[in-house]
Amino acid sequence: MTLSISPDINSVAQLVSSISTQQQPTVTEAEMVQAVRTLLIGLGENPDREGLKDTPKRVVKALQFLTKGYDESLDELLNGAVFKEDANEMVLIRDIDIFSSCEHHILPIIGRAHVAYIPNGKVIGLSKIARICEMYARRLQVQERLTVQIADALQGLLKPQGVAVVIEATHMCMVMRGVQKPGSWTVTSAMRGVFAEDGRTREEFMNLIRHSANFH
Ligand SMILES: Nc1nc2c(ncn2[C@@H]2O[C@H](COP(=O)(O)OP(=O)(O)OP(=O)(O)O)[C@@H](O)[C@H]2O)c(=O)[nH]1
Ligand SMILES: [Zn+2]
Fold it and tell me: What is an example of a Pfam family matching this protein (predicted)?
């Protein structure tokens, strides 16, 4: 059986131009499915064989899930859960699972985020901190930008005394391919306000993320 690939060069050019002019690209689900089918053929596979029949559809659905953060906004996820509160001590959420995708290879970035802030008249619903991490992680990312986006979102929402974000993650593009270094971890941090200015506050945060929780 001969399987042919016939990309429509004009529509690809239009798509690229719409992306570069910041318009919302108009690509149908069927075109996305077709693109995955084309990839499978390029890889030497037969997309019509039993096991692969629904794979293009599944891949599109999976990629849409892994990048669903593009369709979410801070306003929506917050749902008003910012409260006036006279609290002045550090709030830390540790070990927030991160499943992101690197923008260079669209391969998984798997790790944990630790997020702290020191309030200044306002606190945020705790789950919303994890939701903010989730929204930015579910996009094509580099770890540095993910870290900064989480810190800046909290800084903007709460105008706290400071925000600290540390992400520890392993990149499948460095593990399964390329340089192939399983066991390597990348640690990134973004410090705002007192965490950037005051070494002791930063040290307190770093100590808190180092110790293991005693209920584990
Ligand atoms: N700074 C940064 N780099 C990343 C991240 N994820 C992947 N990369 C790197 O992006 C780079 C892309 O480099 P290229 O040389 O263009 O791509 P490549 O030939 O696939 O590179 P290798 O992975 O070295 O095989 C690689 O060094 C990746 O390790 C990230 O979150 N942050
Ligand atoms: Zn990568």
Answer: GTP_cyclohydroI
